[in-house]
Amino acid sequence: LQITGLVFGGVGMLGTLAATAMPQWRVSAYGEANMVVFESIWEGLWMDCISQLGLRLQCKLYDSVLALPPPLEALRALMCLAVLLAIVAFLVAIVGVKYSQPSKEGPQVSPFILAAGVAFLLTGSLVLVPVSWTGGGIVRDFYDPAVPAPLKRELGAALYVGWASSALLLAAGAMYC
């Protein structure tokens, strides 16, 4: 169970890192079937990208941290905190597995195991908040008739990676607790 939790936590940690770095949080949406699309737009936490005909990808980092909208600043902060906490939880889990020893009285569980479980649960929740917040905003805007069609976005791959990572981190935390 500890090894399975360690594997789930490690994959969840890598997924959290990937979701944080990926530029596909929000991707351009085209709801009209007769529209020919020459470029797609990706919006992430760190940069915007434009893919032209799937052949050329051009990405640009955001110019200034001070020019970012407050929700994007909050999303960045939560995901960065989640990455750091996931790394710490994974390292603590490794130490906990190493120092858990079977004995005649039953398995002796290291206090690191419980700490890793709590850290994984907290990290999974921390990832779930910004990913779900972004997903909810995208769905709300997509169905809002007041939002012009070129500004509508769809759920990007980073959100799905974030949801899967959150599920793995929560499962790892539950196993350790």
Q: What's the gist of this structure?
A:
By secondary structure, this protein is α+β, with helices and mostly antiparallel strands. It has helices at 2-21, 70-99, 111-142, 157-176; strands at 26-28, 39-43, 47-52, 56-61, 101-103, 106-108, 153-155. Helix 1 runs antiparallel to helix 2 (70-99) and helix 1 (2-21) packs antiparallel against helix 4.
Q: What does this 3D model show about the protein?
A:
It is a single chain. Helices cover 58% and strands 16% of the residues. The chain has 177 residues and is α+β, with helices and mostly antiparallel strands. The chain has a single domain, classed as Butyryl-CoA Dehydrogenase, subunit A, domain 3. The strands form 2 sheets. The protein has a 5-stranded antiparallel sheet with strand order 4-3-2-1-7. The protein has a two-stranded antiparallel ribbon with strand order 5-6. Helix 1 packs antiparallel against helix 2, helix 1 packs parallel to helix 3 (111-142) and helix 2 packs antiparallel against helix 3. The radius of gyration is 20 Å and the shape is elongated. The N and C termini lie close together (11 Å). The chain crosses the membrane at residues 74-97, 109-135, 155-176. Keywords: Cell junction, Cell membrane, Membrane, Tight junction, Transmembrane, Transmembrane helix. GO terms for molecular function: structural molecule activity.
**CATH class call:** Mainly Alpha
Protein structure class = alpha+beta
Binned, the helix content reads 55-70%
* CATH fold-level name: Butyryl-CoA Dehydrogenase, subunit A, domain 3
Number of helices: 4
Write down the Rg. Answer: 20 Å
